[in-house]
Amino acid sequence: MHFTIRKARASDALAISQLIIPLTKKYVCPDCDESVHNVLLGSMSPERIEGYMASNYSYVVAVSESNEVIGVGGVRDNTHLYHLFVHDEYQGKGLSRQLWESVKGFALQNGNKGRFTVNSALSAENVYLQFGFKRIDGVRREKGMVDIPMVLDVTEK
Fold first, then answer.
1. What is 3-153's CATH superfamily?
2. 139: which residues sit within 8 A by CB, 6+ positions away?
């Protein structure tokens, strides 16, 4: 498995959206109320992704040898892990950790003092636990969304 991780460009917005929408439908939507599916998926449109990248979000992408976006990591305000998705074919091979390490490093270089948050999908909690995140609270159900708020303090040893 050969791939390159690089900073995402606005021209990647469509490929990012095409990667994360099906994964969200498969792994996130089943735990959420149907009433929020369209809002959630709409927040992942190419236009919205491009808007995030033009504002206070930083994204990296993993690109295969055939130039396909196979993974993405995005951080808001250098503190909140907003998106972390890996194509099904590449899951379980350490790619999510590499994407996380890349966006974490970028955030630390850009002013983060070592504290990160994430609102984990139920199906992703174990991945974040492996990265060192800890639950702040139990499973949260708000306005149809279901997640687990988590925090990581990289200054703790």
1. Gcn5-related N-acetyltransferase (GNAT) (3.40.630.30)
2. 122, 146, 147, 148
